[in-house]
């Protein structure tokens, strides 16, 4: 199993629970909110007609976007959040600070599904997830709050 290097300058590490990570700066949050909205426009969702966009901020300031990509064989569809993560990992980035998610749902803040929460968990517990509405408002939770008592890479080292 490949070992992931956690050398984030913000101090994020799966074994560190009292992270010293500084809050994401206001400008970066605004940029993330903008990018996830733009990414939503690329959503390929002819079956659900539920476009979602995600924007993933790495620890070194790079942003990867993602959208949901559905398939006629329904189970093969993938969420926007995982698209963004897979784009980042495939380009060598595994240290993440924040993700913003956008949909067209006006009544509720869009939240990541359970599968996406687990995939996010693979890469730390302490990063921030911004869940938005189309009007630009959002709520933010740490992944630890969204997926408490989670199973992650360090659990496999306990044998
Ligand atoms: Zn999902």
Q: How many DSSP H or I helices?
A: 4
Please name the CATH architecture. Answer: 3-Layer(aba) Sandwich
Largest sheet: 5 strands, mixed
Round the mean pLDDT to the nearest integer and report it.
89
Number of strands: 5
Q: How much is the radius of gyration in Å?
A: 15 Å
Task: Please give the alpha-carbon distance between the first and last residues.
Answer: 14 Å
Strand order of the largest sheet: 2-1-3-4-5
> What does the overall shape look like?
globular
Task: Please name the CATH topology.
Answer: Cytidine Deaminase, domain 2
Active site: 81
Domain CMP/dCMP-type deaminase: 27-154
EC number: 3.5.4.5
GO biological process, one term: UMP salvage
How would you describe this structure to a colleague?
Keywords: Hydrolase, Metal-binding, Zinc. Its cofactor is Zn(2+). It comes from Chelonoidis abingdonii. The two termini are 14 Å apart. Residues 1-7 and 9-20 have low confidence and may be disordered. Helices cover 24% and strands 19% of the residues. The protein has a single domain (16-148), classed as Cytidine Deaminase, domain 2 (3-Layer(aba) Sandwich), CATH 3.40.140.10. The protein has 159 residues and is an alpha+beta fold. Zinc ion is lined by residues 79, 81, 112-113, 115-116.
């Amino acid at each position: 199993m490949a070992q992931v290097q956690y050398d984030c300058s913000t101090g994020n590490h799966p074994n560190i629970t009292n992270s010293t990570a500084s809050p994401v700066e206001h400008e970066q949050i605004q940029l993330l909110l903008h990018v996830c909205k733009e990414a939503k426009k690329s959503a390929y969702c002819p079956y659900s007609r539920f476009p979602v966009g995600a924007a993933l901020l790495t620890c070194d300031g790079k942003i990867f976007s993602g959208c949901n990509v559905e398939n006629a064989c329904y189970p093969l569809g993938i969420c926007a959040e995982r698209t963004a993560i897979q784009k980042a990992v495939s380009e060598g980035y595994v240290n993440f600070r924040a993700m913003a998610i956008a949909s067209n749902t006006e009544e509720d803040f869009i939240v990541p599904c359970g599968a996406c929460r687990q995939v996010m968990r693979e890469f730390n517990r302490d990063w921030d997830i911004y869940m938005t509405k189309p009007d630009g408002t959002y709520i933010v939770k740490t992944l630890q709050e969204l997926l408490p008592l989670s199973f992650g890479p360090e659990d496999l080292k306990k044998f």
